[in-house]
Specification:
Elements (H helix, E strand, L loop, with lengths): L4 H7 L3 H9 L9 H14 L9 E6 L2 E6 L1 H11 L2 E10 L2 E9 L5 E9 L5 H23 L7 H4 L6 E2 L17 H14 L6 H12 L8 H4 L4 H25 L28
Antiparallel strand pairs: 1-2, 1-6, 3-4, 4-5
Helix pairs in contact: 7-10
Length: 283
């Protein structure tokens, strides 16, 4: 005898129940793979990380599918938000080695976290690895804390009983979407950068805008660095920064002269930030 149709409707989770599971309980298990990919990318975008570097992975913890941070996440966060980390103490408490790390942001905020690893009677290389792990754990935990991310770091996962790896962070993408920047796109970016210098957008600020908009951490504007961008990222940068350049040029034509040296700066959205903004351009 078949299952009554109303029973199927009753047992199926409604969209509202699914969203409650995600937002309130933090359980991503009910999302479809495409929905998880969108959620993953949205989380990355909201904090300025590049999803293509897979800064997060999924893990099933206490029956819930959730995200934890990988090394790529904390490395990018420190670079993007100007976080510096120092070790303030190292000590052994019985069979546990404890390291305390302090993080400081460019605006003067600070936070501290510990990294603790059981060392028991470990010696030699095993002891050395445990000491380094405690320091790494402390640095990553304090980075996540000062950046306001209440999630686990990958160094903590292996010590949690019952934790199980989740599905891949991102579904396999078509090769075309991961195609790298081509020579024409690279040349367009170079031209836009050169022309923006006429409006006092320095190469350093142009690089800062590229890193913020694309969610990357390019060290410079060399061909080698630009060639690590994807074609999609390049198209987005050309559109956004080219639009800003076009607006500068139109303003200059209206004024029948070049824009004064310090009138404009490029912000993260591609729009001008006035000089009286004491916090500077918001990249």
């Amino acid at each position: 005898m078949g299952t009554p149709q109303n029973a199927l409707v009753h047992n199926a989770a409604s969209p509202g129940e699914i969203m409650e599971s995600v937002i309130v309980r933090g359980d991503l298990a009910k999302l479809q793979p495409e929905e998880r990919a969108k959620y993953y990318s949205t989380v990355c975008q909201s904090i300025g990380l590049n999803p293509l570097t897979k800064p997060f992975e999924y893990i099933t913890l206490n029956g819930k599918l959730t995200l934890y941070a990988r090394k790529d996440a904390t490395d990018q966060l420190r670079s993007l938000r100007g976080v510096s980390v120092v070790i303030v103490s190292r000590e052994r408490v019985e069979d546990v080695y404890v390291v305390t790390a302090r993080a400081t942001t460019s605006d003067g905020r600070s936070d501290e976290s510990i990294g603790a690893v059981a060392i028991g009677n470990a010696k030699g290389e095993a002891l050395a690895n445990a000491l380094m792990k405690a320091e790494t754990k402390a640095k990553r935990r304090v980075t996540l804390s000062i950046c306001g991310l209440g999630m686990l770091d990958e160094t903590e996962i292996e010590t949690i009983p019952g934790a199980q790896p989740g599905p891949p962070a991102l579904p396999a993408a078509p090769a075309a979407s991961l195609a790298l920047i081509d020579s024409d796109q690279s040349e367009l970016l170079r031209i836009i950068g050169e022309e923006l210098q006429d409006y006092k957008v320095t190469p350093a600020k142009f690089l800062q805008a590229i890193n913020k908009l694309a969610g990357v951490t390019l060290p410079d504007l060399s061909a080698e660095s630009l060639n690590t961008l994807t074609s999609d990222q390049a198209d987005m940068l050309i559109a956004r920064l080219g639009k800003r350049l076009d607006e500068y040029q139109k303003d200059a034509v209206k004024a029948s002269k070049k824009v004064p040296a310090d009138d404009y700066q490029v912000d993260a959205s591609g729009y001008a930030v006035d000089d009286f903004d004491t916090d500077g351009p918001q990249f």
